[in-house]
Amino acid sequence: MDGETDTASHLSQVTVAANSKKSGKGRMIALRRYLPIADWGRSYDRGAFSNDLVAAVIVTIMLIPQSLAYALLAGLPPEAGLYASIAPILLYAVFGTSRALAVGPVAVVSLMTAAALGQIAEQGTMGYAAAALTLAFLSGAMLLAMGLFRLGFVANFLSHPVIAGFITASGILIAASQLKHILGVAAEGHTLPIMLGSLFEHLGETNPITLVIGIAATAFLFWVRKGLKPMLRNMGVGPKAADFVTKAGPVAAVFVTTFAVWALGLEERGVRIVGEVPQSLPPLTLPPMSLDLLEALVLPAFLISIIGFVESISVAQTLAAKKRQRIDPNQELIGLGAANLGAAFTGGYPVTGGFARSVVNFDAGAETPAAGAFTAVGLAIAAVALTPLVYYLPQATLAATIIVAVLSLVDFSILKRAWIYSKSDFAAVLATILLTLVAGVEVGVSAGVGLSILLHLYRTSRPHIAEVGRVPGTEHFRNIHRHKVETDPRVLTLRVDESLYFANARFLEDFLHNRIARDPQIKHVILQCTAVNDVDLSALESLEEINRRLAEMGVTLHLSEVKGPVMDRLQKVHFLQDLTGKVFLTQFEAVKAITRPA
Amino acid sequence: MDGETDTASHLSQVTVAANSKKSGKGRMIALRRYLPIADWGRSYDRGAFSNDLVAAVIVTIMLIPQSLAYALLAGLPPEAGLYASIAPILLYAVFGTSRALAVGPVAVVSLMTAAALGQIAEQGTMGYAAAALTLAFLSGAMLLAMGLFRLGFVANFLSHPVIAGFITASGILIAASQLKHILGVAAEGHTLPIMLGSLFEHLGETNPITLVIGIAATAFLFWVRKGLKPMLRNMGVGPKAADFVTKAGPVAAVFVTTFAVWALGLEERGVRIVGEVPQSLPPLTLPPMSLDLLEALVLPAFLISIIGFVESISVAQTLAAKKRQRIDPNQELIGLGAANLGAAFTGGYPVTGGFARSVVNFDAGAETPAAGAFTAVGLAIAAVALTPLVYYLPQATLAATIIVAVLSLVDFSILKRAWIYSKSDFAAVLATILLTLVAGVEVGVSAGVGLSILLHLYRTSRPHIAEVGRVPGTEHFRNIHRHKVETDPRVLTLRVDESLYFANARFLEDFLHNRIARDPQIKHVILQCTAVNDVDLSALESLEEINRRLAEMGVTLHLSEVKGPVMDRLQKVHFLQDLTGKVFLTQFEAVKAITRPA
């Protein structure tokens, strides 16, 4: 055991990190730390430039319909989706550490935005769009603060199964929320029962032409996703080209349905269209800051920040790993914070690093965040020049692109996996999924986090305690219930397989108390501390209490194999002096010393 | 490592416990389990009877003024204190497992009762006393439910330092709340700033005679507590007799001040007295059950239950240890639950096992819960026959007994101790003390619990990770920063000193990712899992992700010294098949196999 070295070396690492801020080239390092662009920008060359440009063109084509669609999902005017992709991408390019991450509106965050704003204002009102700015501002400020105070670890409390369950349930909610556009009816609600109930109520008002467009677009997009690529490959098209054609599928759907509406005058027959979108660069906007609004949005903004950060960082890390690049989670928070503040002041809404767009960017050969900057330019051109083209674009087509995109998020295999691997993880996933569906995204994700923390605490609050004895002829001690071991009726040795802390301190007290009360022969208790990484103050007081109570029963308490950092702490207090027995380096020495004939 | 046996043996223990309900003498065991009286009752004899009777007389004398005083503290009519001591003691005698625990009103729970009811109704109104019944009912129902569902572990989340801080702050609050009775003024508030502010406002209305009585009684009781016993012992009085006289101090104060008020007619000069107390056995009462009331009281009732349970069980265990007796925490919950339900239906208020009264009971020689039953009879006689005697008892005297009793609870040494031992425990205590004083008991204890859980999660979310190498000539592997060890530049071995779970899964991912990105020589990573007691689903997915990312970097991942239960779980999923490297029984074997020349 090199336990005694652990605290010191851990501290020394921390010190090293802290010093790097002030050392020799301190300012340059600090600059590079908070401005990663200063790092990759210096070595930028023509090769990287042309790769980045190609990637940007591909991503731009993909993003135009996607941005409009996610704005629709968030309940915002379509241009908000474009605006939310421009300034945020540029700001992330300056402050972010991932070379390939593409920042902008994403499905889950758009859904959460709709859920948050639905409590504040009616969709389509000025107040609604303004509140979206405030939400982006709050989210940006929180991300930035977490980054500056290096609080990125907060995201760790979202367990993988909870995230998986949440994403699956969100996918279902999103798909359900788009059905009204496919049917061409007005329906409402942010939870599944209310959405479905409202849809059912309005079913009679279904617009048949909208329904035809919606179903055709959905079927086409499913086919593009599943059947087109294999077909093209069979026809001898190269993999890259086949991939590109597949990615352009939504654009084709947009073109065809827009043309159909325009040519056949379908908007006069009740097909809802995108309509007028202002031809403009992103406007400068000021998020409203009334105290009531801030108070109402602070919790949603926090949840959006955390969920967005988790989604973004896992994409960034997956892509960085492919090229052995580093991602700094706290700097990522700063990058995402800046991106969201950018969205708040340029007519956008909360954004994060999206999975699909980032993968496309990476696969298209993006080498640096400059690719993102070029994408922003492409989208800015689209916002200025192309918006009249989407006037006749039916909302049903956008809904179809959303439905096809999010159904790939829905994956119930996590339930089976969790069931097989760990029942407590299963409980957390199931609760997350069900509550997200029936009580909304905020309740769902909060309950998932709360439950997984409680279940973790519950597990560690009832640690496994093994009664051990010596394997004959060796110095090894093993569980008496599983191995043929030698024990002495006067000596009880317990090995606790968990750090001792407040949640299990009393458990050990009870366990020992009951064990000893049952067996009056016992004169010595040895606690073998191999697996005890920490003893907090509650556990220390429990040990003191155990020591005192055992003394009153005439039983001596010994410890063996205490780790260095634990020993360091115990030496700060009186416990070792008060201990009725001794602390032994090894369990073997302990038993030898205690059972030695007098 | 005999890890593989651990889950199984743990399960087998659980099975044994579960089976005992159904085995041979099943019904008898079940009866004894839920009715401990069936156990000790059968061997009750004349010796135990006379010991119990003596203890009961002493405790009864002590409890009469104490019960009146605590009722005053809770803001209830004095008889409520007596009633709360009668049925609850009897019910605990039937259902509780402690032989010496004395159940009834205690200081901290009385304070919490006052804080909870203060939000519902005015002190002294009918609604206030009725709400106290509802509070006792809710608390009893919760304790009973926790006992039946074996949820006693919930109390473990109150860490020792948080309890210590809470008790100290409560002591200060209680003492402050009694100052108004010493001054003879009307003041209000349930937090220190409001209490002191209100007192200061009414300072001009101080009743001088009340003040004289209050100060004299307080000084006398302090002297009895600190000076009387040594004096008696010096005068040659035996230790038992000296002890008894000391315990009777409050009774003397009650007698003298009551006589003074009666003889000098002080109640006509503004000295507040206890006044008329009905001469009656505990009445049958029905706690009001309106939904509003239940909703308002459910959280306070939960906190009262938990705090009461923690106080009670620690007293019970301390006393049981002295005689090697067993306490069953879940049965204790049932006992306390029954006691509180008893209080709810007989005009009382929430009760628990008190420290002072239990120690007196134990020291006086109580052998079985029958001592409690006799005490109940004594108090019932007092309620019927003695209440007219306390008509002239000044409230200031009762306040003095409370102040002197609770000041012994105030102990700031926990702050120093926590500061020395663990800064995170210190933060939790300090927050508990400050918030209890300035924001009230409910906020204080909740914040303490929340903070200690968060700090624990934070600690385990950043586990110590040591990079280890082989100590030359041995099979031992130690921290490379602390020992001269042999390493191979192609092989990185990390030892994580914590179970892997969602809160630290990403930490390990980041750590490894950054470590490998820095060092392109590395071709093999070994995770030495000696201290990993658990791998939850999030950590499993992190390991899979690490495996996948390392593979993309051309690095092989191996595991060594995986514990049995962890291995069992890993075998349920595909991870071990997907692992690019191998699982080695020991770290030594791993390094030997990997670095073996080809």
Describe this structure in words.
2 copies of one chain form a homodimer. Chain A is 64% helix and 5% strand. Chain A is elongated and about 105 Å long. In chain A, helix 5 packs antiparallel against helix 14 and helix 19 (423-439) packs antiparallel against helix 20 (441-461). In chain A, the strands form 2 sheets. Chain A has a 6-stranded mixed beta sheet. In chain A, a hairpin with a 6-residue loop joins strand 3 and strand 4. Chain A is mostly helical and 598 residues long. At the A-B interface, helix 1, helix 8, helix 13, helix 18 and helix 20 of A face helix 1, helix 8, helix 13, helix 18 and helix 20 of B.
What is the structure about, briefly put?
2 copies of one chain form a homodimer. Chain A is mainly α. In chain A, 64% of the residues lie in helices and 5% in strands.
β-sheet strand percentage of chain A: 5-15%
Overall pLDDT score of chain A: 86
Task: List the quaternary state of the chains.
Answer: homodimer
Q: If helices are DSSP runs of H or I spanning 4 or more residues, what is the number of helices of chain A?
A: 25
Give the strand line-up of the largest sheet of chain A: 4-3-5-6-7-8
Distance between the termini of chain A: 31 Å
Q: What's the overall geometry of chain A? A: elongated
Q: How many individual domains of chain A?
A: 2
In percent, how helical is the residue content of chain A? 55-70%
Q: Gyration radius of chain A, to the nearest Å? A: 30 Å
Q: Uncertain spans of chain A, ≥5 residues at pLDDT below 50?
A: 1-24
Q: How would you classify the helix and strand content of chain A by structural class?
A: mainly alpha
Number of strands of chain A: 8
The chain pair forming the largest interface, with residue counts per chain, is: A-B, 89 and 90 residues
The biggest beta sheet of chain A, please?
Answer: 6 strands, mixed
